Amino acid sequence: MLTRRALLQLAAAAVPGLLVGCGAGFDPDAVPESITRFPRTPMSGDVTSTRAVLTFHVADDTPVVLRVWTGEEVVLDSAIEPNGDGFHKVMVDDLVPGTEYHYAVFSGKPRRFEERSLIGRFRTWPSEDTREPVSIALLACVGQGTILPDYYYPEGMPVPTTEPIQWEVFTHAREHDLDAIVHLGDQAYLDYVWELQDGTVEAYLNAWGAFHGGGYRDVYPLAPLYATWDDHEATDNSDFDPWDTTPEIDAKVANAQEAWYRVMPIDAMTPSEAPVWRSFRFGGTVELVLLDCRYELQEDHLMSTAQLDFLLDRIESSPCRFVCVATPRPFANITSDPALAADNQDRWEAYTADRGRVTALLDALDARHVVFVAGDLHMNYLGRVSLEGDAPSQDAWEVCVTSGNVNPLAGGLSREQFELVDTRPHLPILTFDPDAGTIHVAFYARDGSLTFERTLDDV
Ligand SMILES: [Fe+2]
Predict the structure, then answer these.
(1) CA dist 50 to 100, 276, 301, Å?
(2) Which of 111, 119, 185, 237 has the fewest CB atoms within 10 Å, measured from its CB?
(3) What is the per-residue pLDDT across 56-112, written as a single tens digit (0 to 9) for each?
(4) Separation of 140 CA from ligand 1 center, angstroms?
């Protein structure tokens, strides 16, 4: 892990005479993009008020320069050396709170860049005494609006994946001013890497290219990513139970997780360094709590005690106006629909002890500022977490997103509990307004049109 100071020293050592802070005249668009050298989108993520994590892939594993700049100046040139596979992650520190930055990877020397990657942007968060509106886009379960997901098909299958996968719904993301992107899991469907390629790290890294070289290029450059995962980043959850595995399964899971930590801009190099569950404060406006509902699963618990304690602590202690709990699996009770209940028993409602600890705290605190966002179910909805009751633990709002995969059972949801239910791919955007005390929820359809909006004013 490198500090900005170390990176600057590294860059200066590698590029004699390099001037940092000479942004005047730098025109990144004048450098042609190379999709051959940089086929995948670079990503920023886990951005705080002073720190950002950047990941990128250099397909030919040649030396490159990672540049970060503002409208006024270049703030970082980092010389990146070949490392064997071209996957890189760089932590950048000492950034200025509340500032917009741009980043890209370049071949050639800083004074004569030859080719570049896509150009991304992120904004560092203001200090916690600043309360500004914050807009967050939700992603989960990419697909084409069909029941069957967008699997990556390795060579040897009847129709192998040879081209990057595209999704229309993300092509309209640029029409919005986004502060953050939250991915709730099933960011890629890698089941056949598990099944047919022995689930090796190399195979997982390679397969991510079908997704990060595809439709994610339309959305990840727009804002920092805060990602959690679900099952298909490794394989379908029906392939194993986390509490009952074999050494072979453990090895494949470890490989999938290692690959995920390498390609994702999560603020850790390996799973052992930091868990997927973590939280971020977007100024004083909203604290985003990201959960791992998959790999800490036990037979009778949705997650480890440590993770559940962490969630409760963040709900109770957060100084922010709102708390947004990103739970890949829905917190809402959906038992009103028997078919759905039978289809997916591994939601919060199946773990009554764990869920009960959360609901007890919400009610004890009279916490109405907590909103849940979820994926996994392959449907979009806005609703209350319970069909009946007006206690905070029953009345809380939940937004569920599918970016593409469709669950034909969605029609069974109670329209009394869920005022919007729509299976078609959508891009939901939540705007947290601390002064108004509201959360605006908007769902944008595949063609970019607004399907539904509602301002939540009881939060
Ligand atoms: Fe999914």
Answers:
(1) 11, 20, 36
(2) 111
(3) 999 999 999 999 999 999 999 999 999 999 999 999 999 999 999 999 999 999 989
(4) 7
